[in-house]
Amino acid sequence: MNRRAWLLFLLVSVLWGIPYFLIKIAIDDLSPVFVVAGRGLIAALVLLPVAAARGSLGALRARFGTVAILAAVHIIGPFLLITYGEVHITSSLTGLLIAVEPVVIALLMSRAEPLTRGRVAGLVLGFAGVAVLVGLDVSGDRLGLLGAGMVLLAAVSYGVATIFVQRRAADIPPETLAGGTTVITALVLTPFAIHTWPAGPVPADAWLALAALGVFCTAVALLAFYRLVALAGSNRAGLVTYVNPVVAVLLGVLLLNEPLSWSTVAGFALVVAGCWLSTRPAPARQEAAEPLPV
Questions:
Q1: For site-directed labelling of 139, which of 61, 74, 167, 251 has its Cα 20 to 30 A away?
Q2: Model confidence over 78-128: pLDDT tens digits?
């Protein structure tokens, strides 16, 4: 990757490591669907003027079907799954479970990039890490396994969406793609959010967490991520989840007093090792040398 791609990679890695911490704060006083709808609405209000200023809104009208599909698999579905999942598990565990996304991408792209022995070993290690995390360190309530399963399903949806962006939407301007997906998210979920409007006063930290989720972790992060996919491809872009869990765990342990046990460390190490092995490029095949003409 070039320098610009690396900068985008680091930016997205940090911005998508923060949401799990902010979600945990927001859902103490706001419903999960309210949080997701609010993220989408705030991000749309930020992104649409950017797209309009750059004159790229026409692409949204021309490719509305593609943008609508991406909104479902990259925002509405996984955002809801993660937010509801965090009701039952810790923010740090959520970030760790999302780290299986590169494994999902490697598996889904196995036809284009065949699975070598190293990649198969990586898949096994990655899922072993998930088993350690879910089986030994759920660190949530009695529905912790359900919450972990919802987050894993969100990771699968993220993997599908990342490949979809590369194959079907890489030619759409990032501000248009991000703006269109967030507008659709807001339109779909706002009616449900209205029914869960908080009955009492909401502390300022919940509103601030929601605003940060919308502006930084959704609007800015989506702009950077879609550009990263166009520059580096889905396999490399999916590797942002190597760094996301580190940020999520540190914030959860330092600011939310969440537990850090040996199984968390062991599971994270297995997931990262599995992701690294499963996304390594296949070795180049050596072609037999052609005989010299006589």
A1: 74
A2: 999 999 998 888 877 787 788 778 778 777 776 666 667 776 787 778 777
**What is the identity of the amino acid at 263?**
S
- What are the angstrom distances between the C-alpha of 29 and each of 149, 195, 202, 261? 24, 15, 6, 28
Spatial CB neighbours of 53, under 8 Å, sequence gap ≥ 6: none
Can you tell me which residue has the tokens 């959520």?
94
What is the distance between the terminal CA atoms of the chain, rounded to a whole angstrom? 44
Q: pTM for this one?
A: 0.80
**Which helix (H) or strand (E) segment is 82 a member of?**
helix 77-85
Q: pLDDT tens for residues 161-186?
A: 988 998 899 889 999 999 999 999 99
Longest dimension (CA), the chain: 90
> Who's near 240: CB < 8 A, 6+ residues apart?
9, 12, 13, 16, 225, 228
Number of separate helices (H) and strands (E) present in the chain: 16, 0
State how far the Cα of 182 lies from the Cα of 42, in Å rounded to an integer: 9
Closest to 157 in 3D by CA, of 96, 80, 49: 80
Distance of CA 69 to the CA centre of its chain: 16
Instruction: Name residue, tokens 């490719």.
Output: 63
To the nearest 10°, the Cα dihedral for 216, 217, 222, 228? 90
The answer to whether the beta carbons of residues 95 and 247 sit under 8 Å apart is yes
Q: HSE on the CB side for 178, CA within 13 Å?
A: 31
The distance from CA 289 to its chain's CA centroid, rounded to whole angstroms, is: 45
For residue 259, what are the CA distances in angstroms to 33, 97, 138, 253, 274?
Answer: 27, 16, 10, 6, 24
